[in-house]
Structures are given as structure tokens and as C-alpha cells.
Amino acid sequence: MNIAQNPNSELSHFAVNTPQVFEIPETFRETARQFQEAMMQYSCAIREFKTKLEVLNDELSMRNARNPIEMIKARVKKPKSIVEKLQRRGLPLSIESMESNLDDIAGVRVICSFVDDIYEISRMLERQDDVTIIAIKDYIKAPKENGYRSYHMIVEVPVFFSSSKKNIRVEVQIRTIAMDFWASLDHQLKYKKQLDAQEAAEIGAELKKCADVIAETDCKMLSIRQKIEEKHPTQEE
Description:
Blueprint: E1 2-4, E2 21-23, H1 32-64, E3 69-76, H2 79-88, H3 95-101, E4 106-112, H4 115-127, E5 132-138, E6 151-160, E7 165-176, H5 177-190, H6 197-231
Parallel strand pairs: 4-7
Antiparallel strand pairs: 1-2, 3-4, 5-6, 6-7
């Protein structure tokens, strides 16, 4: 059985990658309607959160004469991945278990131009009184061993339906363009089954070096931008 999802609206300066069709695994067939409703709700939570980001981006572009957000990507986790994650954790295979235990079913990735944009966006989100911060992991200040860098937030946002309001969790990843490019290569490495252990280790070591170079480049680019702004500050009309 397939579940069709309404596509999210998008602005011309945003790219949104959200799957449009969900295949229900056998585990959820008895509760297909409830599962369809849950996926719809997560999709709506993404739409609500994207709107917040678009508003912030428009405001900051007016203030700073540039767009701090280059791109927004969004996705709802695939049913197969949901089932596999619940099984790995030894959790019940139910919609209630899915909603209570998984924080990354709805995911939004925010691609910024500079490192300071990441922290400015995150601070603005934290100040919004209808956004509840559940957890924060700063992999920029404390990168993973493989070199991965990104700023992660788990948030809850209210979504208003016809007769109710529901707080829904969204995983947010905020990173620079360079960090996102690196992460895509690292993701490919993890899922290339044909690589043997030695090949994977060698490529992993090369990627770690690249991650360090990218981090240094991000810092240098930020420094250059700040020098330009010091000499030529933005003039508000």
C-alpha cells in the first residue's frame, strides 16, 4: 500500500527534498490509516518550521543585505528506516512508540553561508516562544571523530489542525555549504557495501583530513567577510 503525501510549497531560493510517496511496511499494515495521519502530521511540522526559517532569512537579508540561508532541505523518515531504528533499540513496533521514542522522523537541514550564520539562526530559533528546545548537540565546536561538523537541534513546534493542536518534534541540522558537501561524501562511504575494511579506512582518513581543511577554510572565509564588512559596513536606507 502506498501513502501519497502532498508536496510542500517552496520558494524560488529554497531547494526542498521531501519524499512524496511512502511505502507502508507489513508491521504497520493493520494501522495504515493512523500511520498515514502521523506522516501527514510530521510533514505539516516541517512546513511550519520551514516558514519560521523563511521569515528569519527574509528579515536577516534585509538587515545584512545578504541571505544567511542558502538552502533548506527537508525529509520525512522512510517507514522502513523507522521500523529498523525501533528494532535496533528493542522498542515496540507501534505508532505510539515511534512518536515517543524517535526524534528524527521529521528532519530539516539548513545550509548557511558562514559559520556565524549557523549560531545566529539557532539563537533566533531558541528565542521563539512557541519553539521548545529538547536537545542541542554542537558538532562544530566538538566534531565527531571522523571529522563530521554540524549544529543539531531537536525542537518541538505546535501544529494546528482542524480540531486540535499537536506539538511535533523536528530534528534540525544547521551547517555551512562546505560541511554539507563533506557530509554527503561521508554518507556515500558508509553505504558503499563493496568497499572492504582497508579501503573504507583509507578513504575515511582522507575524509578526516578534508574535514579539517574545510573547517579551516570556513574560518578563513568568515574572517575575510568580516574584514570587508568592517571597511564597507552595510548602509541602511
